Amino acid sequence: MTDRLSLFDTTLRDGQQTQGVGFSAEDKRRIAESLDRLGVDYIEGGWPGANPTDSAFFAAPPKLKRATLTAFGMTKRAGRSAANDEVLAEVVNAGTPAVCLVGKTHVYHVKHALGISRDDNLANIRESLARLRALGREALFDAEHFFDGFAADPDYAMACLDAAIEGGAAWVVLCDTNGGAMPAAAARVVERVCARFGGGRVGIHAHDDTGQAVALSLAAVEAGARQVQGTLNGLGERCGNANLVSIIPTLMLKAPYRDIVHTGVNVEGLRSLPEISRMLDEVLNRQPNRHAPYVGAAAFAHKAGLHASAIVKDPTTYEHVPPEVVGNERVIPMSNQAGKANLLRRLREAGIEAEREDRRLAKLLALVKTREEQGFAYDSAQASFEMLAREAFGQSRRYFDVERFRVTVERRHDPRMGAQVVSEAVVVVNVDGERMISASESLDPVTKADQGPVNALVRALKRDLGKYQDYIDDMVLTDFKVRILTGGAEAVTRVLIEHRDGAGARWSTVGVSPNIVDASMQALLDAIAWKLTRDGAPLRQLQPGE
Domain Pyruvate carboxyltransferase, which positions (predicted)? Predict the structure, then answer.
């Protein structure tokens, strides 16, 4: 029989404290709805009254189906009653069914930060939690700097938890506020707290300043804690918080956790983790971490030939869990370290059948290695590899021809914007014998800011592809990387481009040239060709003489 473990997400508050992160109220609603579908138990929406965004969020909160929306605040201040403290009132007036209040548990902070007596602090905790319970709210107490406070004065730190429980707290959450606690030492403290109150009332809230927030959270679960707090992708102040995207699958799939606890996340929720992780990155307009545990694009990528050979024989050899369980997939990238095992598997994934003795394999492998010596990177551009393989196996598909393209850059004066550098691209495409000329500028349609020559080229190329237009309308360029491979007058540029489409597919392509625009065009043409091939677009009509 396993215990129920509660998942408490603090992305909307702790995550917003990340340097460079600023959620809008609508961002918060979108994230909250995704967390609700995932199956977390509590969603901490922020601190009502602390800023206009949080106030707007609580004024029109999302309609959650499973999770409990929670407001965050602090215990009442000394010299005021819990009913007359205006800061506490803002939190109460948010009307959420649960409220988490933070309070001091370290004697140093009580004396020097609050400037009050130990007994006054205990009274503040007790009376604040009692106020919430009297109003029918579920009350949680976030014990700030608990592990440091326990090390300094264990009796007083425990007395703070006693005061919270006496006031009616359903949970006392032990916070490693500065992220400096060690997992084994923290686990011994958690054991003592659980022995006093029962693990069903004890939570853990770890910060990642030593890179051990996930480990500390799991150690606390083994020690008896039955609530874990954290954020999506480990977002948070300084080095971040415990990463729920790593914690959730570990709890569900790994011993001993799967044998002692269960969560509200079901099998479908577990498979949705990559999607939810990427959703947060899209909200933040940042590139997902390809190497993130469980959910990263490279989390199950096997590059070395020796590893790949073993993977073909037994997929469990180098994988700690099956990738599909967590909504991910196995990747055998092509690179100059590849062997035939990599090649055969990648060809099968692309729908190209080949036997191990096929002479074309050796030629393709040699071609891949030669092109990587020139600067191509097929381990990071799976779609370009597929296009290369189809050509080597006589399965290349021509949809249209780019007869020519031109990109110009000029500096101009705009009365409103001042001096601007603007790029213009012109592309001439031939589809079934019909020549189409498309042009586009690099200015953003809304902000009118310059987005560079490659964006102008993308817009021009995608503006009119005749019968293929419907196939590419949902393509969105999500990442663009440039690297100068050699210096001096003969510099070579590598461009890596990532796209996604309305079906949720993501694919990457590569181009290499001394000219960045030419390299970009190579990658763009591969990206479109891959999309058309995958979606079964009709081939172009052969022209006379072909």
Answer: 5-271
Which residue, among 108, 238, 247, has the nearest Cα to 177 in the 3D structure?
238
Residue 375's CB: how many other CB atoms inside 10 A? 18
For residues 7 and 311, the model is more confident at 7
Q: What is the pLDDT of residues 344-378, one digit of tens each?
A: 777 887 788 888 888 888 888 888 888 888 888 88
Domain boundary, last residue among 340, 366, 392: 392
Instruction: Count H helices and E strands in the chain, helices first.
Output: 20, 16
Q: Does residue 136 sit in the same domain as residue 54?
A: yes
Q: What is the CATH number of the domain that holds 77?
A: 3.20.20.70
Q: What's the burial of 112, exposed, middle or buried (CB within 10 Å: 0-12/13-18/19+)?
A: exposed
The count of domains in the chain is 3
- H runs (alpha helix) in 243-400: 244-253, 257-260, 267-271, 273-284, 305-313, 340-349, 359-374, 382-392
Rounded to two decimals, what is the model's pTM? 0.73
State whether 310 and 440 are in the same domain. Answer: no
> What phi and psi, each to the nearest 5 degrees, are found at residue 132?
-65, -45
Question: Considering the domain boundaries, does residue 98 fall inside one?
Answer: yes
445, exposed or middle or buried, with CB in 10 Å at 0-12, 13-18, 19+? exposed
CB contact set of 159 (below 8 Å; sequence gap of 6+): 118, 122
pLDDT for position 156: 98
Can you give the residue range of the structural domain that contains 416? Answer: 401-534
- Which of these ranges, 39-48, 352-361, 368-377, 412-421, has the smallest mean pLDDT? 412-421
